[in-house]
Amino acid sequence: AQSVTQLDSQVPVFEEAPVELRCNYSSSVSVYLFWYVQYPNQGLQLLLKYLSGSTLVKGINGFEAEFNKSQTSFHLRKPSVHISDTAEYFCAVSARTGNQFYFGTGTSLTVIP
Amino acid sequence: AAGVIQSPRHLIKEKRETATLKCYPIPRHDTVYWYQQGPGQDPQFLISFYEKMQSDKGSIPDRFSAQQFSDYHSELNMSSLELGDSALYFCASSLEPNYGYTFGSGTRLTVV
């Protein structure tokens, strides 16, 4: 099975500052990696995904993530955050031959004016 | 663009009652997944269907059942509801497994 660890449960950051949300995964097989965002009282929205190819993946809203196989990481970054980025962020992994996602416990990003 | 539609958006039930949650996937998506997200928790996988057949099973209680119909919509049936079943229930659909789901907005179930 696969598992995901999000190292920070809460990340406060000032507006226009850069942010990195950390995600490490564990798997004995090749995986696909995803980041989802959940705004208050809303569903999960796909930010970006890594399937294959370039390890640097760009997503919506100016977010990007880098797949590092040797460190089994898939950290999410944004060079300058906005108030509207305040939300819960979930990292997820699925085996390439599997059929379900495993989510991390989430990181609550709070952007401070 | 069409999204995943879930109904109802909110549902209040009493203990020991039954509830049925519906999910309408994106057109041509043949795979449907159900997740349960408790308050302040990450989504937990319940069950999935591919081409109307159950494809994977997670931490779904025996009191729950689900199926996918010929038009690919899915229903999650929950019986003998308990207070602990209060949660946000997400449905997601995908064209091919593991290529990233599209989630619905969820059904918030409150058991009182």
Report on this model:
The complex is a heterodimer of chains A (113) and B (112). By secondary structure, chain A is mainly beta. Helices cover 0% and strands 53% of the residues of chain A. In chain A, a hairpin with a 5-residue loop joins strand 5 (31-38) and strand 6 (44-50). The mean pLDDT of chain A is 91. With 112 residues, chain B is mostly beta strands. In chain B, 0% of the residues lie in helices and 51% in strands. Chain B contains no helices and 11 strands. In chain B, strands 2, 4, 5, 6, 9, 10 and 11 form a 7-stranded mixed beta sheet that branches. A 4-stranded antiparallel beta sheet of chain B has the order 1-3-8-7, with no helix packed on it. In chain B, a hairpin with a 7-residue loop joins strand 9 and strand 10 (102-103). At the A-B interface, strand 5, strand 6, strand 10 and strand 11 of A face strand 5 and strand 10 of B.
Beta-strand percentage range of chain A? over 45%
List the secondary-structure elements of chain B in sequence, H or E.
EEEEEEEEEEE
Would you report the number of β strands of chain A?
12
User: What proportion of the residues of chain B is helical, as a percent range?
Assistant: under 10%
Radius of gyration of chain A from CA coordinates? 13 Å
> Can you count the beta strands of chain B?
11
Overall pLDDT confidence of chain A: 91
Over all CA atoms, what is the radius of gyration of chain B? Answer: 13 Å
Helix fraction bin of chain A: under 10%
User: Kindly, what is the distance between the CA atoms of the first and last residues of chain B, rounded to a whole number of angstroms?
Assistant: 36 Å
Pair of chains with the largest interface and how many residues each contributes: A-B, 23 and 23 residues
Oligomer: heterodimer
